[in-house]
Amino acid sequence: MDVSTLPHRLARIVGPANVLTAESDTTPYATDWRRRYFGRALAVVKPGSSEEVAAVVRLCAETGTAIVPQGGNTSLCGGATPDGSGTQVVVNLSRMNRVRALDAVNNTVTVEAGCILARLQTAAEAADRLFPLSLAAEGSCEIGGNLSTNAGGVQVLRYGNMRDLVLGLEVVLPSGELWDGLRTLRKDNTGYDLKQLFIGAEGTLGIITAAVLKLFPRPRAQATAFVGLDSTRDALALLTHMQSRCGDRLTAFELLSATCVEIVTRHMPGVQSPFARIHAQHVLLELSDTDAASNVRDVMEAALAEAMERGIARDVVVATSEAQAQGLWALRENMTEAQMREGRQVKHDVSVPISSIPEFVDAARAALDQAFRGVRVIGFGHLGDGNLHYNVASPPTMTEEAFMARMPEVNRIVHDLVVRFGGSISAEHGLGVYKRDEILRYKSPLEMGLMRQIKRAIDPLGIMNPGKVI
Ligand code: FAD
Ligand code: MLT
Ligand code: ZN
Question: Which domain holds residue 274?
Answer without folding.
Answer: 221-336
